[in-house]
């Protein structure tokens, strides 16, 4: 294992990596640090290409010791699909779709949970808990079942039925809350110490972001160790965006890519857009979006604990943030599906909407390469599509 320590994303405090921990003493998220000089000596990017596909091929930049076995369901190695019809529709030369729907449990949440559940088990946790607007709960339930651990999921009462069923089928204990994901988080927090649960909420432990950062490694590898000009990413808690930025920094230190970075586009719903609002107002943190309401369950996150990290990533790379109305993102989920054969989720549709707007405004140039993320299967969103029939 090449982990050196954990450090705080905000205050920089360092702590040992051999303990089960949630947040820094200052209340901010922790990040995993690696001895990248040793990684460079141990493995080359060409050697990774010879390994079987999957998230754990990047073992040297993941936190698990070589003697330990990961809890895996075959996640990662998702396709990066050229989308010429979408490119022509939007007015671009090169558009790719990173289709995370083919992951176990049907979404990108599998990436974070394989690493978080693996490390929780290694470090001694026996019972895990998470608040979830949908896909994270299903992923935790599945990986906890594979690990032989119990899972406790707190979900809004109006969570899509497919997400609730997924948790129940995997044997998780599901508690429905009258409210949003932040209300679910409060309910979990009130019980976790007495129940002995370890909280694996978004960025309230250091390892989900490590799984999500493999998105960045995969993108670079799939594009011949180059990076796209623009990455359009639907953002709730922001783990994937933060993880990709971390991966790009690691790859530069390893000498595998240069200093050029993609411009990130944060995509949210007009009914819940705290990062967009904070970005537009020049603020360093986002606060809470009151009365959040959107059919894109993954975007219905009123407040993100790592909002300040998301905003730093955007500004450091010259990125931007866009809010899309529900009627528009559902329309473009249908367009994306019909043009590519991908069963797009509402969040994927929002990325297409954002790319269209930014190309029309000139922020994205016609010659630039653009990656859109479809973060989950549209099959889990029957209620959302029914609300806006074709």
What does this entry look like structurally?
- The protein has 390 residues and is of the alpha/beta class.
- The chain has a domain at 80-107 and 208-387: Rossmann fold (3-Layer(aba) Sandwich), CATH 3.40.50.
- 40% of the residues lie in helices and 16% in strands.
- It contains 15 helices and 13 strands.
- The strands form 3 sheets. The protein has a 6-stranded mixed β-sheet with strand order 4-5-13-10-11-12, sandwiched between helices. The chain has a 4-stranded parallel β-sheet with strand order 8-7-6-9, with helices on both faces.
- Strand 1 (3-8) and strand 2 form a beta hairpin.
- Helix 5 (135-147) packs parallel to helix 6 and helix 9 packs across helix 10.
- The relative contact order is 0.14.
Class from secondary-structure proportions: alpha/beta
Rg, Å, rounded: 19 Å
Q: Which parts are unreliable, with pLDDT below 50 for 5 consecutive residues or more?
A: none
SSE sequence, one letter per element: EEEHHEHEHEHEHEHEHHEHEHHEHHEH
Mean pLDDT, rounded to whole units? 97
Q: Per CATH, which architecture of the domain at 80-107 and 208-387?
A: 3-Layer(aba) Sandwich
Report helical residue fraction: 25-40%
- Measured between the Cα atoms of the first and last residue, the distance is 51 Å
Counted by DSSP, the helix tally is 15
**What sort of overall outline do the alpha carbons produce when their principal axes are compared?**
globular
Largest sheet: 6 strands, mixed
Give the number of DSSP strands.
Answer: 13
Roughly what fraction of the amino acids lie in strands?
A: 15-25%
User: How is the CATH topology of the domain at 80-107 and 208-387 named?
Assistant: Rossmann fold
What's the CATH class label of the domain at 80-107 and 208-387?
Alpha Beta
What strand order characterises the main sheet?
A: 4-5-13-10-11-12
């Amino acid at each position: 294992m090449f982990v050196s320590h954990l450090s705080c994303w905000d205050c920089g405090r360092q702590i040992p990596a051999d303990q089960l921990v949630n947040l820094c003493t200052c209340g901010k998220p922790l990040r995993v640090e690696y001895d990248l000089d040793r990684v460079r000596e141990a493995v080359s990017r060409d050697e990774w290409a010879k390994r079987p596909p999957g998230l754990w091929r990047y073992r040297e930049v993941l936190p698990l010791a070589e003697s330990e076995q990961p809890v895996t369901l075959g996640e990662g190695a998702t396709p990066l699909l050229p989308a010429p019809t979408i490119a022509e529709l939007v007015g671009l030369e090169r558009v790719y779709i990173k289709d995370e729907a083919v992951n176990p449990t049907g979404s990108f949440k599998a990436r974070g949970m394989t690493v978080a559940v693996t490390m929780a088990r290694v470090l001694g946790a026996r019972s895990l808990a998470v608040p979830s607007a949908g896909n994270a709960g299903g992923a935790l339930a599945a990986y906890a079942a594979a690990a032989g651990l119990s899972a406790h999921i707190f979900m809004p009462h109006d969570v899509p039925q497919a997400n609730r069923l997924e948790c129940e089928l995997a044997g998780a204990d599901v508690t429905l809350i009258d409210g949003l994901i932040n209300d679910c988080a409060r309910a979990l927090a009130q019980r976790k110490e007495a129940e002995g649960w370890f909280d694996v909420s978004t960025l309230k432990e250091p390892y989900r972001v490590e799984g999500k950062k493999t998105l960045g490694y995969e993108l670079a590898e799939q594009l011949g160790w180059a990076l796209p000009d623009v990455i359009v990413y639907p953002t709730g808690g922001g783990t994937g965006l933060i993880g990709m930025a971390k991966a790009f920094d690691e790859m530069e230190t390893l000498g595998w890519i240069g200093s050029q970075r993609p411009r990130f586009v944060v995509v949210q719903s007009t009914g819940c857009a705290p990062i967009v609002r904070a970005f537009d107002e020049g603020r360093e943190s986002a606060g809470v979006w009151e009365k959040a309401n959107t059919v894109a369950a993954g975007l219905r996150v009123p407040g993100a604990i790592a909002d300040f990290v998301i905003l730093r990533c955007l500004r450091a790379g010259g990125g931007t943030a866009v809010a899309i109305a529900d009627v528009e993102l559902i329309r473009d989920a249908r367009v994306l599906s019909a043009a590519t054969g991908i069963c797009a989720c509402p969040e994927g549709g929002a990325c297409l909407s954002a790319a269209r707007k930014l190309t029309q405004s000139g922020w994205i140039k016609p010659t630039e390469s653009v990656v859109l993320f479809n973060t989950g299967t549209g099959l889990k969103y029957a209620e959302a599509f029914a609300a806006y029939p074709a």
